[in-house]
Write a structure and sequence with these properties.
Blueprint lengths: L1 H9 L6 H8 L2 E6 L4 E3 L7 E7 L2 E6 L5 E7 L4 E2 L2 H6 L6 E4 L3 E7 H10 L1 H27 L2 H11 L3 H4 L2 H8 L3 H7 L1
Antiparallel strand pairs: 1-8, 2-7, 3-6, 3-8, 4-5, 4-7
């Protein structure tokens, strides 16, 4: 588990063995089975999660009971309900496991501590946040400006491996279309 995290950080910042050991000491581990909940709407969100193994989805369920998937997270990605995590308020999202998962968990308190003590870690998280904002903006613009077929093709181009791991009903929910519409696009 620790090797995956080290490689992830070192894509952006160099770390000595001592710095990495210190960083790693602030994480805990968690393993969940397929279909298990990591976060449920209304929960307090204590951690940001780095995905070592497996696949998760973050979604919101509307008043009619329809799920709207905001994000998938696979190996080498981070996932949480960021609004709840940073504001220490109840979750507005649900996150569950599409596959069995292994996670490294970082509390907000530990994140703040290591960022205050190691400038390069703060820089890493700033850069990751910036990348996340850019991805979110692209996703919103795609939903506003692209038709279902274009969104499907964009997703296929960006994350071709996702289609072998995720049922078509979940892909349809992520794209904002019905399962029947997705079947016509494929």
């Amino acid at each position: 588990m620790s090797l995956a995290l080290r490689q992830h950080f070192e894509k952006m910042i160099p770390l000595s063995d001592q710095e990495f050991d210190y960083l790693l000491s602030h994480f805990t581990t968690k393993k969940l089975r397929k279909h298990q909940f990591l976060v449920q709407e209304g929960d307090f969100v204590m951690n940001d999660y780095f995905v070592v193994k497996g696949l998760l989805k973050a979604y919101h369920t509307d008043q009619e009971g329809k799920d709207h998937i905001l994000q998938f997270a696979m190996e080498d990605w981070w996932i949480t309900d960021y609004q709840a995590y940073f504001s220490q308020s109840p979750a507005s999202l649900t996150i569950d496991c599409v596959e069995e998962v292994e996670l490294l968990c970082l509390s907000l308190q530990n994140r703040d501590k290591i960022c205050a003590e190691l400038h390069k870690i703060e820089n890493f998280f700033r850069r990751k946040s910036n990348s996340g904002y850019i991805a979110l903006q692209r996703r919103i613009l795609s939903l506003l400006n692209s038709n279902a077929k274009e969104r499907y093709e964009q997703l296929l181009q960006q994350y071709p491996g996702l289609f072998q791991r995720v049922p078509k009903t979940l892909i349809a929910s992520y794209l904002g279309v019905s399962r029947e519409t997705l079947s016509r696009l494929v």
